[in-house]
Amino acid sequence: MGLTVWVVGHWRCGTNWVTTLCKPLVERVIADSDVTDNSGIQRFRTDYPELKFVPGGLEQFKRYSSFACKINCLRRAQAEEILELFPESKFLRVTRNDADTITSIATPKRSSRPARNFGMSVDEARTFVETWTVEHYYLHSEERFKDRTHVVAYERLVADLEAEYGRLRDWLLGEPAQ
């Protein structure tokens, strides 16, 4: 199997953007709704339900030679399950300044598109962001994950998209950094 990429983060940190950047590198880009039952996460408040994979959700992707899939709020147990099925997987951990993310989650959007209503107060959004920032720490600290995880900072993407995309692409394709 070719390149398998899992884009991990939490709401409003840039995971959709990073997943889109992977499109030229893989056969297929997969939405998180194709692989997870995140209905519990949609009702997210101060409790933290387990993310559940849709039955057959991971197995179905073995038919692609390469793919990128965004999964927000990925727990360690689910990452272990991914590695069992796709041992060569790489993880892109997307980060964003916590204060900006909290504001983005808790503030209604003013645009022509309908706003996504997360239904969270600022305090709930802060708890959410802090919890998932800590929850995703295993990707940086545990031997099994740290060599297969690349951190993509939203702020670096905004400041210099071309350079950051070059680093992301080179890391995914195993090419030396320039």
Question: Could you write a compact summary of the structure shown?
Answer:
The chain is built from ten helices and seven strands. The protein has helices at 15-21, 32-35, 39-42, 76-85, 98-106, 122-135, 138-141, 143-146, 154-159, 161-173, and strands at 4-9, 28-30, 36-37, 52-53, 67-72, 90-95, 149-153. A five-stranded parallel beta sheet has the order 2-5-1-6-7. A two-stranded antiparallel sheet has the order 3-4.
Question: What key phrases describe this protein's structure?
Answer:
Rossmann fold, 178 residues, alpha/beta, two-stranded antiparallel ribbon, 7 strands
Descriptive report:
- The protein has helices at 15-21, 32-35, 39-42, 76-85, 98-106, 122-135, 138-141, 143-146, 154-159, 161-173; strands at residues 4-9, 28-30, 36-37, 52-53, 67-72, 90-95, 149-153.
- The strands form 2 sheets. Strands 2-5-1-6-7 form a 5-stranded parallel β-sheet. Strands 3-4 form a two-stranded antiparallel sheet.
- The protein has one domain: 3-Layer(aba) Sandwich (Rossmann fold).
- By secondary structure, the chain is of the alpha/beta class.
- It starts with a strand and ends in a 5-residue tail after the last helix.
- Helix 5 packs across helix 6.
Strand order of the largest sheet: 2-5-1-6-7
Outline type: globular
Q: Percent range for helical residues?
A: 40-55%
Overall SS class: alpha/beta
Number of helices: 10
Mean pLDDT: 81
